[in-house]
Amino acid sequence: xxxxxxxxxxxxxxxxxxxxxxxxxxxxxxxxxxxxxxxxxxxxxxxxxxxxxxxxxxxxxxxxxxxxxxxxxxxxxxxxxxxxxxxxxxxxxxxxxxxxxxxxxxxxxxxxxxxxxxxxxxxxxxxxxxxxxxxxxxxxxxxxxxxxxxxxxxxxxxxxxxxxxxxxxxxxxxxxxxxxxxxxxxxxxxxxxxxxxxxxxxxxxxxxxxxxxxxxxxxxxxxxxxxxxxxxxxxxxxxxxxxxxxxxxxxxxxxxxxxxxxxxxxxxxxxxxxxxxx
Length: 278
Ligand SMILES: [Cu+2]
Prior knowledge:
The protein is α+β, with helices and mostly antiparallel strands and about 280 residues long. It has two domains: about 30-115, Orthogonal Bundle (Helix Hairpins), CATH 1.10.287.90; about 125-270, Sandwich (Immunoglobulin-like), CATH 2.60.40.420. Helix content is about 40%, strand content about 20%. It is built from five helices and ten strands. A hairpin with a 4-residue loop joins β2 (about 135-140) and β3. α2 (about 40-70) runs antiparallel to α3 (about 85-115). Mean pLDDT is about 90; it is low at about 1-5. The site of copper (II) ion has 7 residues, from loops.
């Protein structure tokens, strides 16, 4: 008995020692409520299903623990060797989960249908994944550019760099040129890749889809009209050596600011073309 306590004590001490250094920044991060027209609804559905699961888990484990404690052998419990089958019990433990699954499936299916409905979008951007950067092209206006990891993050990630990761704001989550979109506008993304499978993931917009070579995937989002701002994401499909170094930054501007920005890009592109032609 003593030895046993000693072993458990040592195990507990080891676990505590392992957990201690990590404890400072240990926190549970839930999915964000987000800023798109769909993200709030998705979050609410997620939380609803989460609490159902917690409730089911509490009931099932509570029942198991109660049965183990109340009917333990030391209390004189005797196993019922005659009961080998109960149709009633089987019907109950089949019907209840089926009902729960159907009740969960209805709002989920409704949500999926809404998410797939990319009709009536006002702007289309083709997003192409590359090892290891993104290319954005505004199909209606022909403006296009690459978006790569920002200079400071890139420097700080090198071995023996003078710049330290802690000194770089939004380390590994910043780019040289963000994707700019108008808030309050339904934006369609046509997603593909030029080499391997990547995934375009921006939690605040509640979008995440694979970018597959030879396939065009479609998704859409609409940043709420009163939520212009900068929203960050990452490639979410292990795509090679620099997978961790191709972040996504979406900058949502007011429609007027966006129109001005797009005009500026178009002029800059024309100027470059004229210069190279001359
Ligand atoms: Cu990638």
